[in-house]
């Protein structure tokens, strides 16, 4: 029987068991940067490398509609989110988000988060221990709510932070974490929809030009404003990814603990090094294991094919640890990004291609800006790292230091 016609074994159980290593393990067993497999009952082709990134974001071959599994929509993105759209519908919806990303707006969010961090640090010094991952989530939530124009009396920041983090933490794993994520999604969509409705009816006033106002007033067409629930989904798609930067904050602390020589350049306020450090944290540490799209035509890559209606998987973790692309991928070396900015199809923790026209996350600039700012503040903070479990398990998706990175004896700079 032709090798391309042989029945494929469904590898979903292996994915759940192996986590980030699932596709790299398959790639090692193949003859190149491509693997045929089956996932969630559908034939799939897994690819890697800058050229594969361009293939993955070619809407003539790959679309998002119908590709995101329902459990992911019900936890991470929300039903009807911009991530599920293609073509003109995607571009129109994305126009809601792109104005938020001009340099002044990004700087404004960074200032709000920095102020929330500085306020939090003053309380940390009075506590015997803090879990940095948890505290970062709260700081980021407080900062993004203030920036988005959400009235302080409309949300409980601590409860919202807990739910936003839960949505990310449980999207890829069956069991209790996934159930917590579903409950968090339902709870916050209900609360956020109520806030949107209050703005639309005039019961609340959203600050002019705020994110809250933009989402409440957005129309996909002149005749069709977003329904209240979809508007809530998209407002959460501003808040949730900002809270998710708590993963990178924990990873940045982990990097500074393992390689403390980087601390001095960050403390000194070297802006170029802070950017390079942020990029290297996003490359070196695992976040998204892979991305998936639905094939709208038969797709052939390096001699392997997947039919229309199958899946094309982009191996993000393997891409970021590819020897041919990075030279020394398992060495944490921010200097690799000092000489040049990473190409659009090289560093892809939040997708590849052009964020204005494709599916690359439009909030990537925000992530980098926040991580630059908070990495410098981390480097300037005095604290003790007690004995704890700092392992980062690759079977857990999304992963993080097991302990959440505990610190004691915090001393404000």
Automatic annotation (TrEMBL):
Task: Tell me its cofactors.
Answer: heme
Please give the organism: Streptomyces lienomycini
Is the Iron keyword given for this protein?
A: yes
Ordered alphabetically, the record's keywords are: Heme, Iron, Metal-binding, Monooxygenase, Oxidoreductase
Which Pfam families has this protein been placed in?
A: p450
- Please tell me whether the keyword Aminoacyl-tRNA synthetase is annotated for this protein: no
Family designation? Belongs to the cytochrome P450 family.
Q: Which SUPFAM superfamilies match?
A: Cytochrome P450
| UniProt protein name | Cytochrome P450
């Amino acid at each position: 029987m032709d090798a391309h016609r042989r029945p494929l074994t469904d590898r979903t159980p292996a994915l759940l068991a192996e986590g980030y290593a699932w596709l790299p393990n398959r790639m090692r067993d193949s003859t190149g940067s491509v693997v045929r497999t089956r996932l969630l009952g559908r034939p799939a082709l897994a690819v890697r490398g800058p050229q594969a990134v361009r293939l993955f974001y070619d809407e003539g071959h790959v679309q998002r509609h119908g590709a995101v599994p329902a459990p992911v929509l019900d936890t991470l993105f929300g039903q009807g989110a911009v991530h599920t759209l293609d073509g003109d519908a995607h571009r129109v919806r994305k126009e809601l988000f792109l104005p938020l990303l001009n340099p002044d707006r990004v700087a404004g969010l960074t200032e709000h988060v920095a102020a929330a961090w500085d306020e939090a640090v003053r309380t940390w010094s009075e506590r015997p221990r803090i879990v940095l991952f948890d505290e970062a989530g709260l700081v980021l939530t407080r900062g993004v709510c203030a920036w988005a124009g959400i009235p302080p009396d409309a949300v409980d920041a601590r409860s919202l932070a807990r739910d936003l983090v839960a949505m990310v933490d449980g999207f890829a794993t069956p069991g209790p974490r996934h159930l917590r994520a579903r409950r968090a999604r339902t709870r916050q969509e209900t609360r956020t929809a109520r806030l949107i409705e209050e703005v639309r009816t005039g019961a609340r006033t959203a600050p002019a030009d705020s994110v809250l106002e933009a989402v409440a007033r957005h129309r996909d067409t002149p005749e069709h404003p977003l329904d209240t629930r979809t508007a809530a989904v998209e407002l959460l798609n501003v808040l949730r990814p900002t809270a998710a930067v708590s993963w990178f904050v924990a990873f940045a602390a982990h990097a500074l603990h393992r390689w403390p020589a980087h601390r001095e350049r960050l403390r000194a306020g070297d802006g170029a090094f802070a950017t390079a450090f942020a990029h290297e944290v996003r490359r070196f540490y695992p976040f998204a294991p892979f991305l998936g799209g639905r094939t709208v035509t038969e797709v052939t890559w390096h001699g392997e094919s997947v039919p229309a209606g199958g899946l094309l998987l982009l191996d993000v973790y393997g891409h970021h640890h590819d020897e041919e692309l990075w030279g020394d991928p398992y060495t944490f070396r921010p200097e690799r990004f000092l000489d040049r900015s990473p190409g659009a199809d090289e560093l892809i923790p939040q997708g590849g291609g052009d964020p204005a026209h494709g599916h690359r996350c439009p909030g990537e600039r925000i992530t980098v800006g926040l991580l630059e700012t908070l990495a410098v503040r981390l480097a300037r903070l005095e604290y003790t790292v007690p004995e704890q479990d700092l392992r980062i398990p690759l079977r857990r998706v999304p992963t993080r230091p097991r302990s959440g990175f505990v610190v004691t004896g915090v001393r404000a700079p």
